[in-house]
């Protein structure tokens, strides 16, 4: 799956132009494997613009509870607007809003209660990477977020090394492949039903390097940030992904 994470970007006009180009040019055989996570304010607009397609619509974050929590959006509200999935634990949420794994666990449970597919984002900092602690950090993030939760088929993890997001510092695809295999093993060992997750890679993916990533066995797609804001650039990545999985 390829997911566009627009973060705090977009406007009614630019979204309309983006979606028009997307619908006219996206390969029909791959469109059900594409997800878009616009700003919460634009979910309704995007859902309407893409209603004739099978593209999945997601929200970038949900509140763990809802109710008297000013400014928050709970899972039920996101589902009610037509969302299919939610990102949980993106590094920007962890860093800027100090979100901890125990909170992310509550959000995963809330997502399941609302029939949203949770996509758990994990990743290490540059310092943790240089100290050789990547695997330990990822294992801890996974175990603390999903322990004692009945993970459902389709559960997805997005691996985003913090030091690679928006920096142009892109890891080697074969190194990411090894990490993804490790992530799958950790999730499967924690899963009560022996579920093997899909694992997406995010972190400075663009047209020129996406094929190198998508040809790796354990890289099941991408969570695309900056490159997804340009519909033409995003479609180039989607076309590469489409060609590789339909060969």
Helices and strands in order:
Layout: E1 2-5, H1 12-25, E2 34-37, H2 43-49, E3 56-59, H3 75-80, E4 85-88, H4 91-96, H5 101-113, E5 117-122, H6 126-130, H7 134-146, E6 156-159, H8 173-190, E7 198-201, H9 207-214, E8 222-224, H10 231-245
Parallel strand pairs: 1-2, 1-8, 2-3, 3-4, 4-5, 5-6, 6-7
Helix pairs in contact: 5-7, 7-8, 9-10
Protein architecture, described:
By secondary structure, the chain is of the alpha/beta class. The chain has one domain (2-245): Alpha-Beta Barrel (TIM Barrel), CATH 3.20.20.70. It is 43% helix and 13% strand. It has helices spanning 12-25, 43-49, 75-80, 91-96, 101-113, 126-130, 134-146, 173-190, 207-214, 231-245, and strands spanning 2-5, 34-37, 56-59, 85-88, 117-122, 156-159, 198-201, 222-224. The chain has an 8-stranded parallel β-sheet with strand order 7-6-5-4-3-2-1-8. α7 runs parallel beside α8 (173-190). The protein is globular and about 45 Å long. It starts with a strand and ends with a helix. The mean pLDDT is 94.
- Mean pLDDT across residues: 94
Q: What proportion strand?
A: 5-15%
The tally of domains stands at 1
Write down how many β-strands occur, each being a DSSP E stretch of 2 or more residues. 8
Could you name the key traits of this structure?
247 residues, alpha/beta, TIM Barrel, eight-stranded parallel β-sheet, 8 strands
Provide a quick synopsis of the model.
With 247 residues, this protein is α/β, with parallel strands linked by helices. It contains ten helices and eight strands.
């Amino acid at each position: 799956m390829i997911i566009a994470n627009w973060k705090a970007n977009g406007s009614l006009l630019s979204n309309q132009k983006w979606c028009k180009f997307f619908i006219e040019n996206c390969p029909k055989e791959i469109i059900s494997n594409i997800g878009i996570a616009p700003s919460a304010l634009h979910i309704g607009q995007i859902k309407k613009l893409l209603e004739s397609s099978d593209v999945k619509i997601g929200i970038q974050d949900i509140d763990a509870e809802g109710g008297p929590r000013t400014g928050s959006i709970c899972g039920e509200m996101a589902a009610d607007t037509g969302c299919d999935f939610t990102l949980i634990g993106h590094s920007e949420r962890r860093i800027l809003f100090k979100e901890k794994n125990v909170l992310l666990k509550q959000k995963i449970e809330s997502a399941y209660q609302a029939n949203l597919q949770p996509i758990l984002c994990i990743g290490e900092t540059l310092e943790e990477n240089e100290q050789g602690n990547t695997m330990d950090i990822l294992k801890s993030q996974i175990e603390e977020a999903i322990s004692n939760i009945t993970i459902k088929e389709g559960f997805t993890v997005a691996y985003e090394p913090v030091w690679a997001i928006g920096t142009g510092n892109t890891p080697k695809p074969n190194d990411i492949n090894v990490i993804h295999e490790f992530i799958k093993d950790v999730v499967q060992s924690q899963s009560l039903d022996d579920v093997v997750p899909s694992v997406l890679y995010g972190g400075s993916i663009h047209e020129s390097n996406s094929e190198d990533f998508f040809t790796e066995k354990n890289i099941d797609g991408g969570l695309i940030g900056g490159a997804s804001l340009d519909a033409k650039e995003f479609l180039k990545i989607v076309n590469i992904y489409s060609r590789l999985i339909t060969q």
